[in-house]
């Protein structure tokens, strides 16, 4: 365990998961100290690497109250709206199990019967009618879903127990991506994409109620790669999409599915005429699932993310490009090439004005939807940037909420094992000046802005890589080595920052003021008092948004 009072590890920690030498249990920011509160890991005895290692990703999921009891063959799924995966869930969450009940997400407490067409066992699923149920589980709480090896692990965020409370194993392939629908009131709310290209949708609550180690009540899509046989790379619910979700693949294609449709129907699409051009093809039959194919690029799509209103979809890929689409209109809006190499990750600001990207050029790039181009480069990582996210709960310690200037706080993690925090105020960005060449025209003065800033990029065009002298540079306010292994992602919650390494170890860093409050009151607080403790408040000179 982590003793947050003195920042030291207790002797009860196992040697396999103990804090590595040289790693501090806190880091300083302008608003105060973030302290390592506890860690989540997995028993090494549960891992099977027969299918090769995969990079761990983490999804935050919140279940509200347990719904009314139902029989295993209860009503069919309703079609809840959703938002874009990890950072979308973090927008509302941050409370742990046993804390206040949020009214955003629900799950399906009962099992769902599955038809013979979707009942499968080859990849570790089982029929709900034969599974055993944990009748004592109430389902309420906040959970971390992570993939390690051939397993999905589910951990209780608010518990300081290191080990997961649930493991789900797949016999023929590894899970590589997942997404939770925070708006689903019942039915399937969890998506899992596999290295084999298979996709599953399940009820998270139903998995937690079952005591087995196989998926229960699963719907199976793209079974055995019948639609696309290249591995899944990223998956996302469509915000406001009534149960619609998008799966990206390593061959540059994305597929749009509806969770209420059988995944075994005819799903043939027209041949892609030009592999270099973006194109959309729709299914030929109304009962087909997937319902559409988007050919985005040549090479792998590495990550996808929806804006919070669902209007835009961002993709980044092996070809080094960010692409932004008007999702309802199925049109390319803008995009551009990174400075060097592949782009690995992307994330939206809450207001939809900016997109972060990170990749093999070691840079964090800030893209503006208004200018439709990159407007800032963050320099600070020493290796590939593997995860980026905006902190929607943070506001400037000096801000009273009335200032016209908006400051953004965002974070990034990389294979250099570092967590970097950045502050962005566009009004304070210094635009590089255009250099006057020797013997140049007097009208081409050093006082004019770089040509990079002359015009807004035309709609529907992809910009070439910018010159390194044309883009403003920003530096991190914090750089902290948080793990001994390369990092793969981060999540901001109202109370903490979560970091995860590629090997599947998760650390929860409490925001300034919160760790002290929790440690001093842990012994005496009742469950109802803990609810009050986690309510939004101004702590340590910083306000954290609801």
From TrEMBL:
<dbReference type="InterPro" id="IPR015943">
    <property type="entry name" value="WD40/YVTN_repeat-like_dom_sf"/>
</dbReference>
<dbReference type="InterPro" id="IPR051362">
    <property type="entry name" value="WD_repeat_creC_regulators"/>
</dbReference>
<feature type="region of interest" description="Disordered">
    <location>
        <begin position="108"/>
        <end position="131"/>
    </location>
</feature>
<dbReference type="Pfam" id="PF00400">
    <property type="entry name" value="WD40"/>
</dbReference>
<protein>
    <submittedName>
        <fullName>WD repeat-containing protein 20 homolog isoform X2</fullName>
    </submittedName>
</protein>
<dbReference type="InterPro" id="IPR001680">
    <property type="entry name" value="WD40_rpt"/>
</dbReference>
<keyword id="KW-0853">WD repeat</keyword>
<dbReference type="InterPro" id="IPR036322">
    <property type="entry name" value="WD40_repeat_dom_sf"/>
</dbReference>
<keyword id="KW-0677">Repeat</keyword>
<feature type="compositionally biased region" description="Low complexity">
    <location>
        <begin position="1"/>
        <end position="20"/>
    </location>
</feature>
<feature type="compositionally biased region" description="Low complexity">
    <location>
        <begin position="111"/>
        <end position="131"/>
    </location>
</feature>
<feature type="region of interest" description="Disordered">
    <location>
        <begin position="1"/>
        <end position="24"/>
    </location>
</feature>
<feature type="repeat" description="WD">
    <location>
        <begin position="336"/>
        <end position="377"/>
    </location>
</feature>
């Amino acid at each position: 365990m982590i003793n947050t009072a003195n920042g030291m590890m207790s002797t009860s920690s196992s040697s396999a998961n103990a804090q590595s030498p040289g790693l501090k249990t806190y880091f300083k920011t302008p608003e105060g100290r973030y302290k390592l509160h506890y860690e989540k890991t997995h028993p090494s005895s549960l891992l099977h690497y027969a299918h090769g290692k995969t990079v761990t990703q983490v999804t935050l999921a919140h279940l509200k109250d347990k719904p009314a009891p139902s029989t295993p063959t209860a009503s069919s799924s309703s079609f809840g709206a959703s938002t874009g995966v990890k950072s979308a869930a973090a927008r509302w969450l941050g409370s742990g199990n046993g804390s206040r009940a949020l009214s955003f997400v629900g799950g399906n407490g009962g099992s769902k019967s599955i038809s013979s067409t979707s009942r499968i066992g080859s990849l570790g699923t089982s029929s709900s009618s034969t599974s055993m149920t944990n009748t004592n589980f109430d389902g309420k709480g906040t959970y971390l879903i992570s993939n390690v090896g051939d397993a999905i692990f589910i951990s209780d965020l608010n518990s300081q127990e290191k080990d997961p409370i649930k493991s789900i194993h797949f016999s023929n392939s590894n899970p590589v991506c997942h997404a939770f629908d925070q708006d689903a009131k019942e039915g399937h709310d969890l998506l899992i994409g596999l290295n084999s290209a298979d996709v599953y949708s399940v009820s998270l609550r139903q998995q937690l109620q079952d005591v087995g180690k196989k998926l229960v009540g699963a719907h199976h899509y793209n079974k055995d790669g019948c639609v696309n046989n290249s591995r899944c790379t990223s998956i996302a619910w469509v915000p406001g999409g009534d149960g619609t979700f998008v799966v990206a693949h390593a061959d540059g294609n994305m597929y749009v599915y509806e969770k209420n449709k059988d995944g075994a129907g005819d799903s043939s699409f027209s041949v892609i005429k030009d592999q270099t051009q973006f194109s959309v093809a729709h299914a030929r039959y109304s009962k087909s699932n997937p319902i559409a194919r988007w050919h985005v690029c040549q090479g792998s799509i590495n990550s996808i993310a929806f804006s919070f209103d669902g209007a835009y979809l961002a993709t980044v890929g092996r070809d080094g490009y960010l692409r932004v689409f008007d999702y309802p209109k199925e049109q390319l809006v803008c995009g551009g090439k990174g400075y060097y190499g592949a782009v690995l990750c992307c994330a939206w600001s809450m207001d939809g004005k900016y997109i972060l990207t990170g990749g093999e050029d070691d840079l964090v790039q800030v893209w503006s939807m208004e200018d439709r181009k990159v407007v800032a480069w963050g320099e600070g990582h020493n290796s590939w940037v593997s995860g980026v996210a905006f902190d929607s709960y943070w506001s400037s310690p000096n801000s009273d909420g009335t200032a016209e200037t908006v400051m953004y706080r965002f974070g990034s993690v990389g294979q250099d094992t570092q967590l970097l925090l950045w502050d962005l105020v566009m009004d304070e960005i210094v635009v590089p000046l255009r250099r006057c060449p020797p013997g140049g025209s007097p009208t081409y003065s050093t006082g004019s802005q770089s040509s990079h800033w002359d015009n807004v990029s035309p709609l529907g065009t992809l910009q070439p890589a910018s010159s390194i002298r044309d883009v403003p540079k920003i530096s991190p306010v914090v750089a902290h080595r948080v793990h001994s292994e390369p990092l793969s992602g981060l999540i901001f919650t109202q109370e903490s920052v979560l970091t995860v390494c590629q090997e599947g170890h998760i650390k929860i860093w409490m925001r300034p003021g919160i760790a002290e409050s929790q440690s001093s009151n842990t012994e005496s607080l009742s469950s109802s008092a803990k609810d009050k403790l986690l309510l939004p408040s101004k702590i340590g000179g910083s306000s954290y948004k609801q």
